Recover the amino acids of this structure.
């Protein structure tokens, strides 16, 4: 029962669409009608508001870490259940017809709470790839793969398996981005707007 409770809490927490809420409160409109239509921080950045993007990133990170912390009150397995389900909730939120974000920021929050060295490695890989390529999607794909590769070396098998599962979900959620990257039509991000 504790595993089910942790999973349910994680999913519902993950389902809170902070990108949508932040942009609406900031008077930026419906983020689903801007840029890629995604509810994550990268698309919020496309509104030109770095402040709104930063808030979205912070809240999405926080819900990932919070889900793990809540689960940890019931033990390691509950924490891992909450960890997986909070990312699933962000990607498939019940409140938005199961059409959510790609899950990268929420996953980072999860991994910070589960195994911070893996989170640090993934974040550094994301930054390096994003600044080099200006493609957030490519950076997400490379960072997710890097986290899955690093995890077995610095954490236990169960945690590494959950991190690998989350990485796989993130990669699968970027399927449209992969097609655009191959076609050369993927949008680049800017670190200087707004």
């Amino acid at each position: 029962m504790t595993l089910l409770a942790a999973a349910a809490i994680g999913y519902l927490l993950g389902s809170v669409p902070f990108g949508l809420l932040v942009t609406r409160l900031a008077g930026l409109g419906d983020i689903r009608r801007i840029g890629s239509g995604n509810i994550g921080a990268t698309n919020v950045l496309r509104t030109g508001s770095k402040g709104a993007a930063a808030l979205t990133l912070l809240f999405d990170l926080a819900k990932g870490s919070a889900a793990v912390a809540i689960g940890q009150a019931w033990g390691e397995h509950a924490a891992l259940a909450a960890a997986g389900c909070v990312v699933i909730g962000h990607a498939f939120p019940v409140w938005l017809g199961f059409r959510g974000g790609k899950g990268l920021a929420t996953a980072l929050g999860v991994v910070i709470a589960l195994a911070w060295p893996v989170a640090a490695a993934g974040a550094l890989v994301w930054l390096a790839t994003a600044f080099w390529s200006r493609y957030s999607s490519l950076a997400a794909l490379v960072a997710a793969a890097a986290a899955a590769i690093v995890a077995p070396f610095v954490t236990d098998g169960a945690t590494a398996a959950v991190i690998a599962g989350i990485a796989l979900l993130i990669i699968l959620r970027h399927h449209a981005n992969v097609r655009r990257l191959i076609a050369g039509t993927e949008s680049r991000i800017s670190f200087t707007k707004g």
About this structure: Residues 2-183 form one domain. The longest helix spans residues 50-72.
